[in-house]
Specification:
Layout lengths: L5 E6 L2 H5 L2 H14 L6 E6 L11 E4 L3 E3 L7 H10 L46 H6 L4 H9 L2 H11 L11 H10 L6 E6 L8 H8 L1 H15 L3 E7 L3 H16 L4 E4 L4 E10 L8 H8 L23 E5 H5 L1 H7 L1 H5 L9 E8 L5 E6 L4 H8 L9 E6 L6 E3 L9 H6 L8 E6 L4 H15 L5 H18 L6 H16 L3 H5 L2 H9 L1 H8 L14 H12 L1
Parallel strand pairs: 1-2, 5-6, 5-9, 6-8, 10-14
Antiparallel strand pairs: 1-3, 3-4, 7-8, 10-11, 12-13, 12-14
Family: Belongs to the complex I 51 kDa subunit family.
GO molecular function: 4 iron, 4 sulfur cluster binding; FMN binding; metal ion binding; NADH dehydrogenase (ubiquinone) activity
Keywords: 4Fe-4S, Iron, Iron-sulfur, Metal-binding
Length: 553
């Protein structure tokens, strides 16, 4: 086995690859050979390192030094100065607040000061294609403890007492799902990891799987033991090919070492995991549509009850959890329910991973305790609004989430606090928009997405999204009337109360929050026939003047 004095981890996340990470990697490998350092330093492809605005990003261990915006022409300097002579290249260092508090239960230097990395504990730290590195971070230790020392009831109680809630959007208590599946009668049961992640602006699950695939496998095996299942499925978007490849490699490695398969840890427990790729349908993020897709049927939501814990995949009891939810499980088993429950808020424990994007100085992936405020995320982790602009609105939870205005920036980012202001935490997508955006244009984009992605099975969603888009389109062209606002509200009420699945029920949420918080902007388009941000091209100065003349007449 080769021993290296340094490891250089190069981010292979989407943003870094697009900015030339592969070219940087090839140049570094070539440079290390030239300097005869290739036997001392290992170059590793890893998952997302977090600061996407600084792509391409690399980190050098054991020092834990982050370099950002690395170009091919910078590689020789990094190799000669840092890797050969031990001197950091100051101009390329990823800047952070050196004196800021870093909450780190795993004694690692988190990417963003103030982060608490539980789910992302290994991302950017290990080689995701080397199971030995995962084991070196106490990987599969929790599975061994569970299978040799704990009963099914004890495992479920730990999850329940931790207060962990589902991180896929609904926030349902994970322990209850596990308990229901365990108590359901069936000769066969299944565990399904929902890795579909179709919400625009969300990429956390992909980056977890790309950077730390074994954490998902270990969690699924623990869940399988707890509920009495011997087979697990990972339902993943077909576009996530790097994640698929790394998961497949991880499964093969785990099986080879006896950590998946038959008689794991000589406990008599068998568990195997299969991967099923989806075709990119947004609706397949809904659990019953997902199960239909795995079975080879058209992915459409089903009427509930029965619920999956009682009658799921092929009519058998099935536990479905989101990737981020499952990634917490090995840590809860290792550190205990009480430790986890003390993080975050009383009703929303633990941490939350957010994908921060839009008009901020620093885009990327962060993990912070539940209850961290929107202001702390935007101004602290996001570095504030870019280009000297003012904050206008944050869309939380992806397209089906709500829109939070400036006067609510101190709202804690947890399920209950956001529900109080009419928004949702959802999948953890945070799209930040500055003052230059037109709220009508933004709302119209939301509804255009839902109009396209509706599966069409139920009338409220199929017709409601189309009608709402048409109304917003008229308003953006100066053709709206005040009655349209009542129509939007009526349509939203019908959809939220009668759509077949949660996706259809949540579709009106962003429209209603924009209407509640930005009604003046709607009225400007309808009554004054002007777009305050000058985004809506049909509302020209000439049209405004014509409107004023008609009013005078």
């Amino acid at each position: 086995m080769a021993f290296y004095r340094s490891h250089v981890l190069i981010c292979n996340g989407k943003d870094c690859v697009e900015e030339g990470a592969k070219e940087v990697e090839r140049a570094l490998v070539k440079e290390l050979k030239r300097l005869e350092l290739d036997n001392e330093i290992k170059v590793v492809d890893t998952g997302c390192l977090g600061p996407c605005e600084a792509a391409p990003v690399m980190v050098i261990y054991p020092e834990g030094v982050y370099y950002g915006n690395v170009q091919v022409e910078d590689v020789a300097e990094i190799a000669e100065e840092h890797l050969l002579k031990g001197r950091r290249v100051q101009r390329l260092l990823y800047e952070s607040e050196e004196d800021a508090e870093i909450i780190t239960p795993y004694q690692q230097e988190d990417v963003f000061p103030g982060e608490m990395r539980i789910v992302l504990r290994n991302c950017g730290v290990i080689d995701p294609e080397d199971i030995k590195q995962y084991i070196g971070q106490d990987g599969y230790k929790s599975l061994g403890t569970v299978l040799t020392e704990l009963s099914q009831e004890e495992v479920i109680n730990m999850v329940d007492e931790s207060g962990l809630r589902g991180r896929g959007g609904a926030g349902f208590p994970a322990g209850l799902k596990w308990k229901f599946t365990n108590q359901a009668e069936g000769d066969e049961k299944y565990v399904v990891a929902n890795a579909d992640e179709g919400e625009p602006g969300t990429s956390k699950d992909r980056l977890i799987m790309e950077g730390d695939p074994h954490s998902l496998l270990e969690a699924m095996a623990i869940a399988g033991y707890a509920v009495g299942a011997n087979t697990g499925y990972i339902y993943i978007r077909g576009e996530y090919q790097l994640a698929v490849s790394r998961l497949q490699t991880a499964i093969e490695q785990a099986e080879e070492m006896g950590l998946l398969g038959e008689n794991i840890f000589d406990s008599g427990f068998d568990f195997k995991i299969k991967i099923r790729e989806g075709a990119g349908a947004y609706v397949c993020g809904e659990e019953t549509a997902l199960l239909q897709s795995i079975e080879g049927e058209r992915g459409e939501p089903q009427v509930k009850p029965p619920y999956p814990p009682n009658e799921g995949l092929w009519g058998k009891p099935t536990l479905i959890n989101n990737v981020e939810t499952l990634a917490n499980i090995p840590v809860i088993m290792e550190k205990g329910a009480e430790w986890f429950s003390e993080i975050g808020t009383e009703s929303c424990t633990g941490t939350k991973v957010f994908t921060v994007s839009g008009d901020v100085e620093k885009e990327g992936l962060i993990e912070v305790p539940m209850g961290t405020t929107l202001r702390e995320i935007v101004e602290g982790f996001g570095g504030g609004i870019a280009n000297g602009k003012e904050f206008k609105v944050a869309q939380t939870g992806g397209t089906s989430g709500g829109c939070i205005p400036k006067d609510l920036m101190d709202t804690p980012m947890d399920y209950d606090s956001l529900a109080e202001v009419g928004a949702t935490l959802g999948s953890g997508a945070l799209l930040i928009m500055d003052e230059t955006h037109c709220i009508i244009d933004v709302a119209k984009c939301f509804m255009h997405f839902f109009e396209h992605e509706s599966c069409g099975k139920c009338l409220p969603c199929r017709e409601g999204n189309t009608r709402m888009y048409e109304i917003l389109d008229r308003i953006s062209k100066g053709e709206g009337v005040l009655a349209d606002l009542n129509k939007l509200q009526d349509l939203a009420d019908v959809m939220s109360n009668s759509a077949l699945c949660g996706l259809g029920q949540a579709a009106p949420t962003p429209i209603m929050t924009t209407l509640n918080h930005f009604k003046d902007e709607y009225l400007a388009h309808i009554t004054a026939k002007v777009c305050p941000t000058e985004v809506c091209k049909d509302l020209t100065v000439e049209q405004e003047e014509e409107y004023e003349r008609s009013e005078t007449a």
